[in-house]
Amino acid sequence: MEDRLGPEFANAMFLSISEVKTLLEYFKREGYMSASNNPLFEQIFAYVKRYDRFPDIQVSDQAKNMLQEHHFQDAEIAMLMNLCPHSAEEARSLIPELNRIESDEELNATLEELVRLKNL
Q1: Full-prediction pTM beyond 0.70?
Q2: Phi-psi region for residue 71, left (φ > 0), alpha (ψ -120 to 50) or beta?
Q3: How many of the other CB atoms lie within 10 Å of CB of 81?
Q4: Is 114 exposed, middle or buried (0-12, 13-18, 19+ CB in 10 A)?
Q5: Nearest C-alpha neighbor of 54 from the set 81, 28, 76
Q6: Most buried by CB count within 10 Å: which residue of 5, 10, 27, 79?
Q7: Tell me, what's the pLDDT at 91?
Q8: Which of 88, 89, 68 is nearest to 78 (CA)?
Q9: How far is Cα 94 from Cα 88, in angstroms, rounded to an integer?
Q10: Residue 33 and residue 46: Cα distance in Å, rounded?
C-alpha cells in the first residue's frame, strides 16, 4: 500500500485516530498547544475525540497488537482501526489491499475481535 501512496510516504508512520488523540492530549497536557495559541489545534482535538473508536489507549493498543499479530501492514492497521468495518466484504471494499486475504472466515473473525474491543 505504501508504494501506491507515493515516495513521500515510503518512511511514513501510519497512526490511528486513537493514537493521534493520545499525542494531542500529551501536547495539551504539557502546554505545547492550547486554544489560545492555536485555535486549529482545538478543532483537530475535537475531531479526534469525536471519531476515536476506542474507549482508551490501552484498548487501542490491544487492537493494534491484535492486528499486528495477524500480519496486517501498518497502513492497513490504521485504516482498520479508524474505520472498524463489520464484515470482510466491507473491509475489502474500503481497503482493496485486503483482497490478499483469501479466507472470509479469518478476516471476519479478526474484524469481530476489533469490534469487540471497540465496544469495551
Answers
A1: yes
A2: left
A3: 25
A4: buried
A5: 81
A6: 79
A7: 97
A8: 68
A9: 10
A10: 13
Q: How far apart (Å, rounded) are the C-alpha atoms in residues 8 and 79? A: 19
Output the 3-class SS for the chain.
CHHHHCHHHCCCCCCCHHHHHHHHHHHHHCCCCCCCCCHHHHHHHHHHHHHCCCCCHHHHHHHHHHHHHCCCCHHHHHHHHHHCCCCHHHHHHHCHHHHHCCCHHHHHHHHHHHHHHHCC
> How high is the mean pLDDT in each 10-residue block of the chain (120 residues)?
69 91 91 79 92 92 96 95 95 95 94 93
- And the C-alpha cell for 5? 501512496
Q: Where in the chain is the domain with CATH 1.20.1250.40?
A: 57-118
- What CA–CA distance (Å, rounded) separates 11 from 108? 30
